[in-house]
Amino acid sequence: MDFVGIWFRGLVQPVRAFDALKSKPAPWWGLKAVLVRYVGTSLTTTLALYLLDRRPFEPSYLTFLSEEHYYRAEIFFLPLFGLFIWLLGAATVHLVLSLTGKYNDFNQVLNIMGMSMLIVMPGVWLWDWVVIILNYYHLTIMAVSHSVFALWGVGLYTIGFNRILGLRVLPAFALAFCVTLIYIPLAAIFVR
Quick check: 149 and 131 in contact, CB under 8 A? Predict the structure, then answer.
């Protein structure tokens, strides 16, 4: 199965998608997935917000970026943020597993993290574009809807850790939940 096949298989049959991902080049497929996710988001959703002259919901924590120029800058730094959060999440999983004596292949963890981050994106992109077009792009709506997408991501990480790393479901879920708890506050700071 090719990259796009695994990506879209993950939407409807995530167990089979992660079973197929296990034999794919690691960490390269994870890297490709992260780049597709964050470059794709930059060139679609973030660019649309910039062209529509939208402002972030809250003032920027990055005080050197004004609200009027925030989305223009985010187009360029969002892929770097994606790479950082991908590496941080995978390093956290690897560290926790290593400290608990569980063998794990860091490259496989990177593949799991990257593909899990990408599988949810057709739903996220479609949702974001519809609410932008309908002018419902508001903090409350986005916070609630993206929380649902984050829970979907937790499920995908759990399946990946279980199927590829051989973790039992409860420890896999706990790690997946921790990775998401790392991502959310960082995204609140940088992703508007």
Answer: no
Contact (CB, 8 A) for 58 and 192? yes
Q: How far apart are CA 78 and CA 181, in angstroms?
A: 19
Cα–Cα distance, 106 to 89 (Å, whole number): 11
Cis omega (within 30 of 0) on the bond before 171? no
CA dist list (Å): 39 to 44, 77, 101, 105, 178: 9, 10, 36, 26, 25
| Burial of 157: CB neighbours in 10 Å, binned 0-12, 13-18, 19+ | buried
Per residue in 114-172, pLDDT (tens digit) is: 999 999 999 999 999 999 999 998 888 988 999 999 999 999 999 999 999 999 999 99
- Yes or no: say if 124 and 37 are a contact pair by the CB < 8 Å rule: no
- As a 3-state breakdown, the chain gives helix, strand, coil percent values, each rounded to 5, of 80, 0, 20
Whether the CB-CB separation of 38 and 78 falls below 8 Å is answered with yes
Single-letter amino acid, residue 178: C
Q: What is the pLDDT of residues 63-77, one digit of tens each?
A: 787 888 899 999 999
